[in-house]
Amino acid sequence: MTTVTQMKCACPSCLCVVSLSEAIEKDGKQYCSSACAEGHPNGSGCGHTGCECHK
Hints:
By secondary structure, this protein is mainly beta. It has a domain at 6-43. The protein contains one helix and four strands, in the order ββββα. The longest helix is centred in the middle third of the chain and has 4 residues, at 34-37. The chain starts with 5 loop residues before the first strand and ends in an 18-residue tail after the last helix.
């Protein structure tokens, strides 16, 4: 049996893989940052290298 410890950020445009122990959970989904969890207010991205999500 494999325990999942990482998963893709729930933000559709985000490329990040987030550790479940560090994820920000909102509405039962795991996000890599508060920007993703909040739906990118002001068009801000998550700020992680190589990821350009902002919506």
